[in-house]
Design a protein that fits this description.
about 350 residues, alpha/beta, 2 domains, eight-stranded mixed β-sheet, about 35% helix
């Protein structure tokens, strides 16, 4: 009688027509169950509706019928989650690079906004700083290729160096590992005039060719909107969650909802919403001043069905610290509860006894 091992071996003969790899090695065979002569195969697809889905199912049925004509084969298709899709893309491109093999990254958190000008990059930097202050091993991947700002905020200018596995990220004053296109340019104000494929390629290199080593959190600073760059991250990097950033204006809320829909469609879990520049505090009386109008964050969070992680005030000290490259010295008291909620929603973890070298 045909057993499960023989069934899996037969499925290794079913090739993906566009990738010349078998479905088992690509991680597309999610499960196989057999009861008497009935076999159920769960086929994981990167997206639910792909043109070759029926062809793949026919290939599975054909391979198992050839193995044992008496088998009754049922193929059930399911959609991969975001992490499974990222692993699939890695396998489809020839498997993990040497750097990916040595890296051990526990959580990858993408910071995304719908539009520019809402302080998305500063929120990403403050999240990394807060997690680092909690004793975690933290890295920052600056995926905003055409508008990189992380090196400036952290005051980092040294160029990355190479090693046998790939590229070493640079370190900030407080030990955060950082990689950005600006660290590879002759001048920090040099424009990156690239089309989508080149930008996507650079982001993939920052993920699979940089030796991040052991990290508890890698914070990915995404460009605003739903462009090729954001799509590349959603497809190629196994995200633990997404933090959305908006500002009080209803326009910003409307656009961030678009970004949230993209994350949902890509099966990337949304950790919550942060409202930046929510208010200013009067230096004379201490009252709150809603410079950009009443907050829309609660409404936006409710519309999206995600928690409101917090509201960050408009503070000139943030700008001053970013301009002089000392974001790590900013006393981000208002941001600490946001970072704690991110940790909690990712399941939390113990602080390592000693940091990775």
């Amino acid at each position: 009688m045909t057993d499960k091992k023989e069934i899996l071996e037969a499925l290794r003969g079913v090739q993906h027509p566009e990738m010349e790899r078998d479905l088992v090695s690509l991680g597309m065979i999610k499960d196989v169950t057999k009861e008497d002569d009935e076999v159920r195969v769960t086929l994981a697809l990167p997206f639910k509706e792909i043109p070759i889905a029926d062809n793949l199912a026919r290939g599975i049925r054909g391979a198992l019928t050839e193995l044992d004509p008496g088998l009754d084969v049922d193929v059930e298709s399911v959609e991969m989650n975001q992490k499974q899709r990222a692993a699939f893309m890695t396998e489809a491109e020839g498997g993990p690079k040497p750097a990916e093999i040595v890296n051990e990254i526990e959580h990858v958190v993408a910071v995304l906004s719908g539009k520019g000008g809402v302080g998305k990059s500063s929120v990403a930097a403050l999240l990394a700083v807060a997690l680092n202050r909690s004793g975690h091993r933290v890295g920052v991947l600056d995926a905003d290729i055409t508008g990189p700002s992380q090196p400036k905020m952290f005051g980092v200018t040294q160029r990355p160096t190479g090693n046998p596995q790939g590229i070493d990220p640079v370190r900030t004053r407080e030990g955060i590992k950082l990689m950005s296109i600006n660290l590879l340019l002759p001048h920090e104000d040099q424009a990156v005039i690239w089309r989508g494929p080149l930008i996507s390629g650079a982001i993939k290199q920052f993920w699979n060719e940089v030796t991040w080593g052991k990290l508890d959190y890698l914070v990915v600073d995404l460009p605003p909107g739903t462009s090729d760059a954001s799509l590349t991250v959603m497809q190629s990097i196994p995200l633990s969650g997404v933090v959305l950033v908006t500002s009080p204006q209803d326009l910003a809320g409307m656009v961030v909802r678009k970004a949230a829909r993209m994350a949902e469609q890509m099966k990337a879990p949304i950790l919550g919403l942060v409202e930046n520049m929510s208010y200013a505090t009067c230096p004379e009386c201490g009252s709150r001043i809603e410079i950009f109008g009443p907050s829309q964050a609660g409404y936006t969070a409710t519309e999206l069905g995600v928690p409101l992680l917090g509201q960050i005030p408009l503070d000139s000290e943030i700008s001053r610290h970013c301009d002089v490259g000392k974001i790590e010295q900013y006393d981000a008291e208002a941001f600490n509860p946001i970072a704690e909620q991110v940790e909690q929603r990712l399941g939390g973890q113990d602080v390592p006894e000693e940091s990775d070298s």
